Amino acid sequence: MHAFEYSAPASVADAVAALAKDDAKILAGGQTLLPTMKQRLAAPATIVDLKKVAGLKGVTREGDAIVIGAMTPHAEVATSTTAAAIRGLVHLASVIGDPAVRHIGTIGGSLANNDPAADYPAAALGLGATIVTNTREIAAEAFFHGLFETALAENEIITAVKFPIPQKSGYEKFRNPASRYAMVGVFVAKTASGVRVAVTGAGSGGVFRQAEMEQALSANFSPDALKGIRVSPDGILSDLHGDADYRAHLVGVMARRAVASAA
């Protein structure tokens, strides 16, 4: 690991000021940044640690939405009685990585990193969440721009995420046995205006929605409604863990399981 300057600001304003330095990077949970630094694949000049920034942790309910602070660890979401209003969300948080990862990794760090196999992007897109930053609010539909790419501007910091409470929700994933990342993960949310289906781990461009499944489930919210739908392997990831045809098949399997768990 290369030498770097360490900053631990106490406020969002101070964190933004620290990020103005050349080649500064945010440290949230550090589950991606620190390993890449140890392997010398990243060498930021300054690390801006958000752990002491006030007001970035916690789970609250605001009307018909669950609001989660960006620095809230996965384990806190998984065990929150408030977040339990969204059943699929707490289950998703409970199956991220292992206990060590869940107690250190944060929701804001996960969304900002936008790993194509991460779990939270599926919840954000599947629930139609709003990502709140120090300068604006960004709809999930506009937030994810591809592999490891988001709408975040330079020096913009995620402060919270707002999740609308659906009528029903479920999440199921097929885990890589080594990393426990999602080879395919599907989040399903039934709302008053219809059903949303978001897929992570499978898309060559990152998280995406599955329109055909949404239409079928809006008419009949049942695993049986998905039996005739075949997902095309076009645009699906293919690697040593599973080719595009295999992952396309898993999308259907995980979607049916997610609907069953929601129902």
What does this structure look like?
- With 263 residues, this protein is of the alpha+beta class.
- The protein has three domains: 5-48, Uridine Diphospho-n-acetylenolpyruvylglucosamine Reductase, domain 2 (2-Layer Sandwich); 59-164, Uridine Diphospho-n-acetylenolpyruvylglucosamine Reductase, domain 3 (2-Layer Sandwich); 168-262, 2-Layer Sandwich (Enolase-like, domain 1).
- The protein has ten helices and 14 strands.
- Strands 4-5-10-6-7 form a five-stranded antiparallel beta sheet. Strands 11-12-13-14 form a four-stranded antiparallel beta sheet, with helices on both faces.
List the helices and strands and how they pair.
Elements: E1 5-7, H1 12-19, E2 24-27, H2 33-38, E3 46-49, E4 59-62, E5 65-69, H3 74-78, H4 87-94, H5 99-104, H6 107-113, H7 120-127, E6 130-133, E7 137-139, H8 140-143, E8 144-146, E9 149-150, E10 158-164, E11 168-175, E12 182-191, E13 194-200, E14 208-209, H9 211-219, H10 244-262
Parallel strand pairs: 1-3, 2-3
Antiparallel strand pairs: 4-5, 5-10, 6-7, 6-10, 8-9, 11-12, 12-13, 13-14
Quick overview of this protein structure:
By secondary structure, this protein is α+β, with helices and mostly antiparallel strands. The chain has helices at 12-19, 33-38, 74-78, 87-94, 99-104, 107-113, 120-127, 140-143, 211-219, 244-262; strands at 5-7, 24-27, 46-49, 59-62, 65-69, 130-133, 137-139, 144-146, 149-150, 158-164, 168-175, 182-191, 194-200, 208-209. It folds into three domains: 5-48, Uridine Diphospho-n-acetylenolpyruvylglucosamine Reductase, domain 2, CATH 3.30.43.10; 59-164, Uridine Diphospho-n-acetylenolpyruvylglucosamine Reductase, domain 3; 168-262, Enolase-like, domain 1, CATH 3.30.390.50.
